[in-house]
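Subject: complex prediction, re-run

Hi both,

The earlier run crashed halfway through, so I resubmitted it with identical inputs.
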Amino acid sequence: MLPTSTAYQAIWHVVAQIPYGTVATYGQVARLAGLPRQARLVGYALHRLPSDHTLPWHRVVNVKGQLSFPLGGDFYCLQRDLLMAEGVVFEQDKINLTQYAWQKTA
DNA sequence: GTTGTGACTACCA
DNA sequence: ATGGTAGCCACAA
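This time it finished cleanly. Structure:
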C-alpha cells in the first residue's frame, strides 16, 4: 500500500475537504483516504500534524459522536469551541452524527 | 529485535 | 444497552 508519508497526506487531504459545520468519523476519513480499517492511523496522522498545519482537525470525531479526549481536557474544550463556532450543537457532550455527519462526496 | 501505547472500530457475550 | 476483546498500524522506549 501507500508509504506512510503518502498515507498521511491522503488523510490530511480528506480532512481538508470536510465542509464547514460538518463532522466526519475517523473510520470515514480512513475509508475516503483509501485506508480502510485504519481509523487509528487517522488519529495518529492528526496527532502528528506538522507545525504549519491549517487543517480543520476539529471536524473529525469518533464514531460515537464524542470527542476522543478526556472530558474537560484542554484539547476537548478547544475542539468543542471550534465546532460550536461553526454552529455544531453539543448535546450531553455528544454530537448528533445523523445531523452533522459529512455526506460522502458521491 | 520486542513490547507497550494510542485523537479507533467492529464484533460478540 | 453495556463491556470486553480482537484487529489495525505507526512510533517510542
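Residues 4, 7, 35, 37-41, 44-45, 48 of chain A lie near DNA strand C (CB under 10 Å from a C1').

- K.
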